[in-house]
Amino acid sequence: MPRYLITSALPYINGVKHLGNLVGSMLPADVYARHLRAKGDEVLFICATDEHGTPAELAARDAGLDVAEFCRQQHEIQADVCARFGLSWDHFGRTSRVQNHEITQHFADRLDAQGLIEERTTTQLYSVTDQRFLPDRYVVGTCPNCGYDRARGDQCENCTRQLNPTDLINPRSAISGSTDVELRESKHLYFLQSKLAPQLREWIDSQSGWPLIVTSIARKWLDEGLEDRSITRDLTWGIPVNRPGFEGKVFYVWFDAPIGYISSTKEWADLAPESRDWESWWRNDKGADDVRYVEFMAKDNVPFHTLSFPATIIGSGEPWKLVDYIKGFNWLTYYGGKFSTSDNRGVFMDSALDLLPADYWRWYLIANAPESDDTAFTWELFGDSVNKELVGTFGNFLNRTAAQVTRHFGELVPVGGEVTAAEKELSATLSTRIAAYLEHMDRLEFRRATSELRALWAEGNVYLESRRPWELVKTDPEATARVLRTALGLARTFAVLAAPIIPTSAQRVLDAFPGSPGPTLADVIADPLSPLPAGQAFAPPGLLFQKLDAAQLAEWGERFGTAS
Q1: Is CB count within 10 Å lower at the N or C end of the chain?
Q2: Are 89 and 120 members of one domain?
């Protein structure tokens, strides 16, 4: 049995993340981790706040805080909101911690020993007004590739192309807005990743079943020619460069951030060193050969995880674990425009939870995950999904069942009646659909999985409509007891299957049967009707979901905007 190592793209430290960030990495990673745990697999789900780089310094300056204190506060805020969204990380670390300093410096030393680090004196933009170099996002200008006029000095947000500050047209300081910039020389370390391009291409070509968006982006960059990258910056906040003559410089955030997956695993292990071995998850010579490593990220992060981070691992010459599968996503847009932390456009995670419990959002986002194309969030589509699927299908089945049980049998599982051909036929239908649902989850096909889950819920409603217990009870109480006992078993089955996606609501359903251990996933696979002992206690869970009316959705649209 393989062990599963799961990582999602690290949320950057400059503020609470928006729904696009959530569905592009963290949420689907959580759904997959929960799914695997339900199957009984051993899972280590790791994430961390990405805390270095210019945006952290700029955000701290705007907040009037020391950057270290700003990052500490933001880590706590992000950990809290992610927990309230039900993200079940085994550890949520920080790239500013000592473990990441040590492992990043180790990788730099190993690359140097392999002849893959080179000192170069380069021409950098310098702001005369600010009296400092302008690395990465300290400079803003027009992208030479697509013409976007607010491209940053490390990457264009519009076309995702990696850039150097000197590539920008009409550059200006992100600190003061001054265009009084000039070129000055600065010494930096370059990672000669171009030397590793053949090995990277061979590795990419050897992967089967990866999403097309992942392999196509990787091959596009390789076809255009993989360039050597500077891995140091003229900044004060970051991991110090452990090399004479480079005092006052730090490693580039995109060099140390992916290493944060490894260092956060070490953070996790250091919390219980007597029972946890972090190297067994990351080094093939320490037992990681049985680990299946799966990464989740949106398309703008794909180049770093298909090329730069693997190049670091391969280039080290050490037996580190390479990713086995990358689940890449397109973008969730907000009415056709990008969600944007910097522009405060769209719905952010904390604001979403002020409106509705997490499961409303979790369901909508996974059911509409941008797997094959960019997907637009609109309040109309959100309301439609909640009302038709959560309220009208799953919620409707639960409410009708609970109402009939309590009305005719009290708060007890009904006694009486034998299983008939109708229940046997239903069980066979459910088994087929459950197998399809689980296969889609295994294959990380989230939209197909939720479609199958909706169909399972619909089978429950069809069963109630066909048996009509509200009429049957007048002529055959025994048969009514059988039908409603079957429906209660279905409620438990539906809750077990839905738990990775809507965990809080699923638990409420399972808690409605006090004194009875809830069925496991293996149990509902073996018997989809999930039989309950007749006469045991039943505590109705109440309404799981509230219908969203048009006026409410319109008010939210007014508050958050309905256009880019």
Answers
A1: N
A2: no
pLDDT digits (tens, 9 = 90+) for 463-488: 999 999 999 999 999 999 999 999 99
Do residues 326 and 202 both lie within one domain?
no
Residue 407 resides in a domain: yes
pLDDT tens digit sequence for 251-275: 999 999 999 999 999 999 999 999 9
Query: Which structural domain, as residue segments, surrounds residue 506?
Result: 379-526
Q: How many domains would you assign to the chain? A: 3
Confidence band of 368 (pLDDT split at 50, 70, 90): very high
Q: How far is CA 552 from CA 77, 135, 379, in A?
A: 28, 45, 10
SS3 181: strand
How far, in Å, CA of 312 to CA of 412, rounded?
Answer: 61
pLDDT in tens, 182-235: 999 999 999 999 999 999 999 999 998 999 999 999 999 999 999 999 999 998
Are both 431 and 357 inside the same structural domain? no
Tokens of 287: 């037992």
| 522-526 contacts, C-beta under 8 A, 24 or more apart | 522/39, 522/40, 523/496, 524/434, 524/492, 524/493, 524/496, 524/497, 525/431, 525/434, 525/438
